[in-house]
Write a structure and sequence with these properties.
Belongs to the class-I pyridine nucleotide-disulfide oxidoreductase family. Residues 349-458 form the Pyridine nucleotide-disulphide oxidoreductase dimerisation domain. This protein is α/β, with parallel strands linked by helices. The protein is 31% helix and 24% strand. It is built from 13 helices and 22 strands. The protein is globular.
């Protein structure tokens, strides 16, 4: 078996691993990166980029279907060629993966080790049966994988995960989506708009990542206007019959239903890839999910020489978070023992459904858990149903809740479903990271007519409820009509 002695070993070659490798190399040339699967990152291969390609195709169909409401009547039947849809998705997906691989190719071959790593102790790793590495510091950046009940494996190739969708050559006739989270909502709605019959099921009533009950209820209603969604289904049975899956369940009225679908899409969450690292051979302290506990700002675990980053850290499984965490963990592994707190940005997340869902800063659940029932915060609200620019574009669905602290007037966070929520969330995230008060945010410029005026309406409502500004004016003449 080959033996290596290095300063830093990075386990994983995805977004976090690549970031950690490059950050560590700024301090030492003695760095290796271990990867057991294909390079290309989850985002580029099976995550954010291919899903947005599918969503873009679905949005083009939706715009044609909406055209008659503007007095524009496309001639003839809308024909969706599933093979052409999936061909573009795969071609563009491969293009994005290619960009990542170009960066990987620039890494010296001696720094890349192929295989799956396991811990022997806090400083020693074996890679498959060919290499043993002694590393002064180690970064765990092994990512995550889809998680679903093991019994579903009885469905064979009729059970798919999001990875499988992007390998389709054509679109199926019907899909049952289990899990109305980010992945389930995005793919389920896109497939529905592309002509696939879709039903969606969940457990516990959760819709998307939302925690605000009012915003979640609105989202549940909005999605149900487009396809059947039961966020707390009473499932009776699910079994494979030939090349299909039969699902028996009680609907929302308690009536027994039997449906048959081509595929079951498991979008029931993701599991950090730390269970096959033999971490029991280390001194790492683990949380209730078996994930190493790490400092939020340094990404250092309970073992001072081991750091963790990205989806494997079980913090916020998003690409920009993985990139930030990778840089912090790699930098600290490289400069150890002179570790430093890295910049952790305000939280921002989005679901690219229609309307979009977005969350910024502290969630409603986090605020209520932290502050309890002390009456220390208020919620400002706006509906997009009568918001001027939204109605002009016939995109007038959704609501925005913004949260502010009594006394200080500080903006705490927001949850929303609405048009262009991805852009509204960025404005609010910048304000949150700068620790702005609601009054300071209201001093910022707002053009007319734009969807962003809805943010101002919600902030004015919040400012009034915090007793820091005047009561809301129903028809604000300084804003122009429909704001």
């Amino acid at each position: 078996m080959k033996t290596l002695n290095v300063d830093v070993a990075v386990i994983g070659g995805g977004t976090a691993g690549l970031g950690a490798y490059r950050a560590a190399k700024a301090h030492t040339d003695s760095v290796v990166m271990i990867e057991g699967g294909p390079y290309g990152t989850t985002c580029a291969r099976v995550g954010c980029m291919p899903s947005k390609l599918l969503i873009a195709a679905a949005e083009s169909v939706h715009q044609i279907e909406k055209a008659p409401a503007f007095g524009v009547h496309p001639q003839g039947e809308i024909v969706i060629n599933g093979r052409e849809v999936m061909d573009r998705v795969k071609r563009e997906r491969d293009r994005f993966v290619g960009f990542v691989l170009e960066g990987v190719d620039e890494i010296p071959s001696q720094d890349k080790i192929s295989g799956y790593a396991k811990f022997i102790d806090n400083n020693t790793l074996t890679v498959d049966d060919h290499t043993q590495i002694t590393a002064k510091r180690i970064v765990i950046a092994t990512g995550s994988r889809p998680a679903y009940p093991a019994v579903w494996n009885e469905l064979g190739d009729r059970l798919i995960i999001n990875d499988d969708v992007f390998n389709w050559d054509d679109l199926p006739s019907s899909v049952a989506v289990f899990g109305p989270g980010v992945i389930g909502l995005e793919l389920g709605q896109a497939l529905k708009r592309l002509g696939v019959e879709v039903v969606m099921f969940g457990l516990g009533g959760q819709v998307g990542p939302l925690t605000d009950p009012a915003v979640m209820a609105y989202a549940d209603k909005a999605f149900n206007e487009e396809f059947y969604l039961d966020a707390d289904v009473r499932l009776e049975s699910m079994k494979r019959i030939g090349d299909a899956v039969e699902i028996q369940y009680l609907d929302k009225d308690g009536e027994f239903k039997v449906i048959t679908v081509d595929y079951v899409l498991a979008a029931t969450g993701r599991r950090p890839n730390v269970d096959k690292l033999a971490i029991e051979n280390t001194s790492l302290e683990l949380d209730e999910r078996g994930v190493p506990v790490a400092d939020h700002f340094t990404l250092q675990t309970s073992a001072e020489n081991i750091f963790i980053a990205g989806d494997a850290s079980n913090q916020l499984p998003l690409l920009h978070e993985a990139a930030d965490q990778g840089r912090i963990a790699g930098d600290n592994a490289g400069r150890f023992p002179d570790i430093r707190a890295g910049l952790r940005r305000s939280k921002i997340s989005a679901v690219f459904s229609d309307p979009q869902i977005a969350m910024v800063g502290e969630t409603y659940k986090e605020i209520t858990t932290r502050l309890g029932n002390c009456g220390c915060f208020e919620t400002g609200e706006v509906s997009f149903e009568n918001q001027g620019r939204s109605r002009v574009m016939l995109r007038n669905k959704g609501m925005l809740h913004v949260y502010g602290e009594h006394g200080t007037g500080r903006f705490l966070g927001a949850e929303m479903m609405g048009p262009n929520a991805e852009h509204l969330a960025h404005l609010l995230a910048w304000a949150h990271q700068n620790k702005m008060t609601v009054a300071e945010m209201l001093d910022m410029p707002f053009y007319h007519p734009v969807i962003e005026e809805g943010v101002r309406t919600a902030l004015r409502d919040l400012n009034a409820k915090l007793h820091l500004g005047p009561e809301m004016i129903k028809h604000c003449l300084d804003c122009g009509p429909g704001c």
